[in-house]
């Protein structure tokens, strides 16, 4: 579970901002709060971030994604780190950027953070957290190879002499532009692999134009499985008119792929046995390697005609909202699984969706939550109708704003005193009491007097 994320001096964030999923003392909806036995923290399964256009909502998601990807993918020799400091402050441009994750993995909690600029890692640390203490597992200071030190003394009495020497060798050999955690995992030292794997496999980020697990739908809908049943039931219940999703087999040549793209796909199958393609018209295709041959399935939606006949439609014929729902169905299905322990972060959940549908999705997820839930659903939105204390707790609602100098700030509704559980917070929000609304001045429209 994601407990905290902090970022400073990155994109539109200048001073440090902190997002967390730690429950406050309010009593509403306590039946969905998970208590972490290691730290005693009460953790929330859901959080939403409100804000106007250009308030930094997408940049906040981008900050999480940048930090995650730097850990997972690492850097090459002599490669600059593609970090983008806050540009509206002369001092910040030349200062390092900082990212900190606090996460719950199994029965342990960790804080992992780093401070970087485009050329080097200035600081890096990993701590294990308990109710009463912080244990530093490793810490890194300095930047250039000549003055950089990585302290791994925590492992002095915990590893064999051979394993400790190998880890010390990795610490000494880690490049200035490479994270030690990343270097260790890449060199098969598995001491930090749980954190690496959590970031790689359990932290799922979905942007407005991206898709989650696109391989699943076209292949699953040709078989009798849980995702197929969930998808077809979901689309019927939200009144899309779709009776069924299915995959239609077509020859690879029918895609009219450029020779270089076809070759790239064939090369890719040496590593992965599936590929996903979306045409400029919006049609979705999955390509699968089966018995040495490439198999192509085109995703089709069936509607029922007046006389009860099923009529096939390309996905590109569906509305933008329906297409977005189809792209998100694998994520929603996985989120509701009792075994799910992933954190799903969706930017602009309400993109192309009606308010009532967005609310129904949130209610559906929350109906699966209990005190044992270890999944989380975090999303950004513009929709003030979701500011409802019957739906969300005050500590589950966050607001992003921009100050007069262009820097983004982040606050929770629970930070504001005197907000009663029965208060209509939508009205206060639209009046600007909690921030997170556009500061609109008189627009330059002129009446046509001709």
UniProtKB/TrEMBL annotation:
It comes from hydrothermal vent metagenome. Residues 47-388 form the ATPase AAA-type core domain. GO terms for molecular function: ATP binding; ATP hydrolysis activity. It holds the Pfam family AAA_21. InterPro entries: ATPase_AAA_core, P-loop_NTPase. The lineage of its organism: unclassified sequences, metagenomes, ecological metagenomes. Gene3D superfamilies: P-loop containing nucleotide triphosphate hydrolases (3.40.50.300). This is ATPase/GTPase, AAA15 family.
């Amino acid at each position: 579970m994601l407990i905290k994320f902090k970022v400073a001096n990155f994109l539109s964030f200048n001073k440090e901002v902190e997002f967390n999923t730690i429950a406050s003392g309010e009593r509403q909806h306590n039946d969905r709060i998970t208590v972490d036995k290691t730290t005693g923290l009460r953790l929330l399964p859901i959080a939403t971030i409100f804000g106007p256009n250009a308030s930094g909502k997408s940049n906040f998601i981008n900050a999480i994604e940048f930090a995650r990807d730097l850990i997972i993918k690492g850097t090459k020799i002599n490669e600059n780190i593609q970090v983008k400091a806050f540009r509206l402050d002369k001092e910040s441009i030349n200062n390092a950027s900082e990212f900190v994750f606090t996460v719950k993995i199994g029965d342990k909690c960790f804080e992992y953070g780093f401070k970087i600029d485009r050329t080097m890692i200035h600081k890096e640390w990993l701590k294990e957290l308990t109710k009463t203490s912080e244990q530093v597992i490793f810490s890194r200071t300095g930047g250039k190879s000549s003055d950089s030190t990585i302290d791994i003394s925590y492992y002095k009495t915990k590893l064999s002499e051979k394993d400790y020497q190998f880890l010390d060798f990795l610490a000494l050999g880690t490049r200035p532009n490479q994270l030690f955690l990343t270097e260790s995992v890449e060199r098969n030292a598995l001491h930090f692999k749980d954190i690496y794997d959590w970031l790689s496999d359990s932290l799922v980020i979905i942007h407005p134009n991206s898709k989650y697990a696109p391989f699943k739908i076209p292949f699953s809908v040709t078989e009798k499985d849980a995702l197929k049943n969930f998808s077809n039931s979901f689309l019927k219940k939200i009144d899309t008119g779709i009776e069924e999703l299915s995959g239609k087999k077509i020859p690879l040549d029918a895609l009219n792929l450029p020779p270089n793209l076809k070759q790239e796909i064939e090369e890719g199958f040496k590593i992965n046995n599936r590929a996903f393609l979306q045409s400029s018209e919006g049609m979705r295709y999955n390509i699968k390697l089966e018995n040495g041959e490439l198999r192509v399935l085109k995703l089709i939606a069936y509607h029922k005609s007046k006389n009860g006949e099923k009529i096939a439609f390309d996905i590109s014929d569906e509305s933008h909202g329906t297409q977005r729902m189809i792209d998100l169905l694998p994520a929603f299905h996985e989120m509701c699984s009792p075994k799910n322990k992933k954190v799903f972060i969706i930017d602009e959940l309400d993109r192309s969706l009606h308010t009532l549908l967005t609310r129904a999705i949130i209610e559906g997820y929350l109906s699966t939550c209990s005190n044992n839930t270890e999944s989380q659903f975090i999303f950004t939105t513009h929709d003030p109708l979701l500011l409802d204390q019957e739906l969300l707790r005050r500590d589950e609602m966050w607001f992003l704003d921009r100050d007069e100098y262009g820097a983004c700030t982040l606050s929770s509704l629970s930070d504001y005193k005197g907000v009663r559980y029965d208060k209509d917070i939508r009205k206060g929000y639209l009046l600007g009491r909690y921030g997170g609304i556009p500061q609109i001045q008189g627009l330059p429209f002129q009446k046509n007097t001709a």
